[in-house]
Amino acid sequence: MDDSRILAGDEYLLRLSQEAQAAIPIDMSFMAPDGWQPQPYETTLGGRFHATGPATYRKGISSTLFFEPSIRRGWWLDRLDLYEQLPIRVSIRNVWTAQRNIVLRSGNPHNYVRMTEHIVAHRLGLGLDNVRISMDSGDPPLFDLGSMPIVEGIRKVGIVVNKERPVTFLTVKEPVTIVGPNGGFLTFYPAAAGDHKLTLDVSIDFPTAIGKQRIVFDVWDDAFVHGAHARTNCSQAMMFYTKTIGKLFADTRNLGYTKDNILVAGKRAYVNPPRLLHDGKSLEAVWHRACLDLIAALSLVDSGRLCGKIVSYKAGHTLDTRFMTLLYRQAVLTKV
Questions:
Q1: For 55-82, what is the mean pLDDT?
Q2: What does the pLDDT read at residue 240?
Q3: Are 175 and 303 part of one and the same domain?
């Protein structure tokens, strides 16, 4: 057990959870090649592309994201249907709620975008620093194959490096931890001298067929693209709820959920075929958690990129965004 500084949460609960996390065997490692380091200069897209899919919260409607290069630092989300509103900067400062997914909002209460995690994860996941994304509503598409349509669009237009703008790498001054009420926790360890990589150790433990899963990997292109194939997941009971009573409530009106774009898990077996098998075990759920949930939250860093090592156990959107907020509130980030 380590002696990290606890930013929030119960120390005794943390010790119990650390023991439980350590007992989960590593199912898969996906480390970067020896000597690999992330691109040291800021990047943007080499051209424009768009990605279209079924809207997440509106049945029978398509939603399109328009990606384009930007000289403006950071990621920006522009609602084309709200022409008097300014683009929303992708930042922890603009998180409206993260109860079920990460909703970003700025200015007018109507100027929001829901389920942004499957979009913004590519910022840190692929080392893509400056991008403008336009959309016709606050309801983004939910793709059948994780976020691969976005990955393929980025690959098609390429990534351009601006050698006049060095990247600012950030790490923590000391190991820090946040603990959630269910025992989930996140711990951030400082980067070693001269090392700009970000390494993730991610564990989940679900009371369904998903069960316990754990992966360890460096955040580099090949690992992120592998994880970007993973769909979001829900229990069989939640799927039934969203198709019945849940239609009455905005935060669960997931009318775009299908057995193609969602991994549905029953108590003892999957309802639909799982993906990302490794040694006969599906790791789709933990790869989705790592790449399209956790990396998305880490991409809410105001500017620059994070480096060091982060351990995640039974955490989710709410704990992720609380953690990012506390990194700023308690001034624990430092330039490398």
A1: 93
A2: 76
A3: yes
Structural domain including 150 reads 41-165
CATH of the domain at 101: 3.30.230.20
Question: Using CA atoms, how far apart are residues 41 and 165, in angstroms rounded to an integer?
Answer: 6
pLDDT score for 163: 97
Q: Count how many domains the chain has.
A: 2
Unique residue bearing structure tokens 């279209």: 52
CATH classification of the domain holding 301: 3.30.1700.10
- Mark which of 147, 165, 183 sits at the end of a domain: 165
Average pLDDT, the chain: 95
Would you say residue 250 has pLDDT above 80? no
Higher pLDDT, 99 or 66: 66
In a 10 Å sphere around its CB, with 0-12 CB exposed, 13-18 middle and 19+ buried, how is residue 10 labelled?
Answer: middle
Same domain, 143 and 202: no
Going from the C-alpha of 136 to that of each of 74, 105, 113, 146, the distances in angstroms are 21, 15, 10, 21
- The neighbour count for residue 156, using CB atoms within 10 Å, is 11
